[in-house]
Amino acid sequence: MERAGIRETTLGIAWIKDAIHLIQSNQNDNVATWKTSIVDGTRAYAFPANLIKLNSISVLDTTDDKYKKIRRIIHEPTVTEDDAE
Amino acid sequence: MATSADKNWLYKVVGRNIYLWQYIYSGNTSVLGGYAIKLPGNYYGNQLIYPDVNIANGLRFEGTAFINTFVNNDPNILDNSDNPTLTSDTGTEASHVNVSYMLSLAITDYLQAQMADKNGEIDKKEYYMRSFWKKVSDNESNKRKAAFSIPSSPYAIKQ
Predict the structure, then answer these.
(1) Is B45's Cβ below 8 Å from some Cβ in A?
(2) Domain containing B29: what range?
(3) Pairing, β B88-89 against β B96-97
């Protein structure tokens, strides 16, 4: 902050966080993984809170116990039963 | 049970959620007299259904994450030939920003850009933001090595 000539610490820290967020939005500087359980009958799963840019989504293949990347569908499929979440 | 997960599972991004779909090729059948028969009035073929299985830690997201902004040691200096042990810090005079040296310089440019913006000096802001992105891209290209060659014809003239 001295190098940038900033005297307001709180504002400087906020801008540093903004800059890191901007960098992580554009580059894979710090890649992480998050896991959550798949629940029977549940289709909606929230993005992890500190995820900035999504690279891939995988599902655990129980036949060989490995995570495999799954594909994204563009259009919403026709839903004929919608009593679950 | 999830078999051929890469082929049989799909997702769609909906706001801050994803919708997870399972692909099946089937229909409602019943066994009558030892024969599987298709029940009338039910759809048979390609279907996307809600997940019909419980899998502990079955869904994995991969992406960039917000990091601990400040750490106690300089992440760019080795500690007796080993990578430094970094502990999260609240941000004091002694803290280090938890990024590479080049990105630290880029962040300095970003701060100067925001200072200029605050003071209404848009041309300065644009200058520092260009410098910011240049350093960010330099940081990325530092990790990659690419070479290309252009063949020249036998009588090519070099100017």
Answers:
(1) no
(2) 5-49
(3) unpaired
Is there a single domain that holds both residue B89 and residue B128? yes
A27/B5 Cβ within 8 A: no
pLDDT digits (tens, 9 = 90+) for B4-13: 778 889 999 9
**Nearest-Cα residue of chain B relative to residue A84:** B50
The domain ranges of chain A are 9-69
Helix (H) or strand (E) holding B124: helix B122-141
Please indicate, yes or no, whether the overall pTM of this predicted structure exceeds 0.80.
Answer: no
Q: Which of B147, B146, B144, B112 is nearest to B127 (CA)?
A: B112
Return the residue of A nearest to B10 by Cα.
A71
Q: Could you give the C-alpha distances from B120 to B21, B83, B116, in angstroms and in order?
A: 50, 42, 6
Has residue B12 been placed in a domain? Answer: yes
Size of interface A-B (CB pairs under 8 A): 218
Q: Which residues of B touch A7 (CB under 8 A)?
A: none
Per the listing, tokens 């710090």 go with A30
pLDDT band at residue A85 under the 50/70/90 scheme: low
Taking phi over 0 as left and psi of -120 to 50 as alpha, with beta for the rest, B99 belongs to: beta
Residues of chain B in contact with residue A58, where contact means CB-CB under 8 angstroms, are: 5, 59-60, 62
Number of domains in chain B: 2
CB B47 within 8 A of CB A81: no
